[in-house]
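Our preliminary data section would be incomplete without showing what the modeling component actually yields. Below, a chain of 300 amino acids is followed by its predicted structure, encoded as C-alpha cells that our downstream tools consume directly.
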Amino acid sequence: MSEIKNPEILLKTRLDKNDYDAIKKLEEICIRHDETSLKLELDYKLSVSSPKAMEKVYINEFMFREEGILVGYLGICDFGGSEIELNGMVHPDYRRKGVFSKLFSLASAEWQNRNSSTMLLLTDKNSQAGTNFIKSTGASYNHSEYDMVLNMDKDIKRRLNTVRLRKSTADDAEEAARQNLIYFNMEFTEEDNVETTDGSYSNITYIAEENSTSVGKVRTELNNGRGGIFGLGVLPEFRGKGYGREILTMAIEELKKNKAGEIFLQVLTDNSNALNLYKSCGFEERYTMEYYAIRKKEDL
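Predicted structure:
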C-alpha cells in the first residue's frame, strides 16, 4: 500500500477532457485489479459538459488526488426525476485509508442540498468491497440490472413493416413525458436530438408510430462508436402484438447505420418479458449492477 502524503480533493460541476482521461485511466486499473465493472457514465457526462447543458449548478464530480495523480473518484449522475446515482472507485494501492469515505461524505452533503429524494449507490454484484461499503452506509437494496451487449453478428429481421420510428421534436415533449410516466413512473421530459459539434455524441428519442398513431418510444445514444438503447416502451393498449421487438430492431438498425461498433442496454433482472425479448434479439448478459437506496428522512 502507498502512503498518502500530499492529498488534494477537487470538486467540480462537470468534467473536462483532462478529467475524463484521468478517470478512465483509474477505471482501467480498478477493473483489471478487481475483475468487476463500473457504471460511471463518463462519455455521457463529457458530452453534456458545455455550460449550456448545465441548467443548474451542482457539484457532480468528486476527485481525490495524491501528488497530483488521481487515486479516488466518485461521480453523481442526475438523469432527472427524484433519484440521483453514485458510483466510484479507489486505486488498489490507496484503499482502506478513508479516501472513498471522504468522497462519499462530500457527495452525501451535496445530495442533501438537492431536491432529489433518493440517492442510489451502485456496485457490481461481484464486488464484495463495494457491497460492504454500501451496506455500511445504511443503504437498503433496491433493485438489480443486467448490462447486456448485442452479438453484432445476430441477424434480426423486422416483422411489422407498418411501424416506423420518427425523431421526436419539441412538440413531442408532452407525449414523451406521458410515456415515461407510464413505463417508468418518471415525471420528466428527455433531452432530444442532442449532438456535440464534433459529432462524437448523439442522444435521440424516437416516437414509434403505426398509421400516425403513437404505439411506443425508444431513446438511442451514441458515444464514440458505442451505442446504447434506453427508455424502450410500448403503450399498454398495443402490447402483446410484437411492437416491442419491432421498436428494438429498428433502434438497433439506426445505431448500426450510424457506425455503432457496440450496442448495449440495461434491463431489470426481474423483468422476465423484456429479458426474454432482448435475448431473442441477440443481447447477452455482461454483468449485474446492484442498486442500493438511501432516502431523505422526510420522505421515509
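The domain at 152-281 is CATH 3.40.630.30 (Aminopeptidase). Confidence is low (pLDDT under 50) at residues 50-54. Preliminary results of this kind motivate Aim 1 of the renewal.
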